[in-house]
What does this fold into?
Amino acid sequence: MNRITNESKLLKGVPELLRCLSVLDFEMVPSDSEMRRLGVSSQKFLGGLEPLCVLVESLPSVGEGFAMNENYAKEFRDAAARLGLLQKVPEPYLTGKMLMDMGLAPGKQMGDIIKQSFELQLDGKITDVEEAIAWARTRITSTGISR
It folds into this structure.
């Protein structure tokens, strides 16, 4: 790759593409939750799942020790597009500022709440900012966490 290009983003992105490719089973498209997590884990170098979709589409259906469902590439791209993951990946709905506005002091608890909320978001259990805020309020109230 170094002989072909000196574009650092591409050089750093190829190993990430191959890592993402290695987790796919090519028989069944990952679940929505798995697709979101795949996008998040690859965001630093890929930015979205478009590069991975292109790579999957370029693979042969059958290869040495490898067989792909004949509709896999299209289904994979369709799932990424439906979830809005082609050009970008999910960002947490909940932010530290939102939690501070609710009276929560910065610290470990704040980080834990943001992380837990994001996990629920990736699982599709929290679908928008309002749900994230409502979930955080109940979490803060039930644990008595505040300034």
About this structure: The helical segments are 8-22, 32-46, 50-58, 72-82, 96-101, 108-122, 129-143. Residues 5 and 11 are 8 Å apart (CA to CA). The beta strands are 62-63, 66-67. The mean pLDDT is 87.
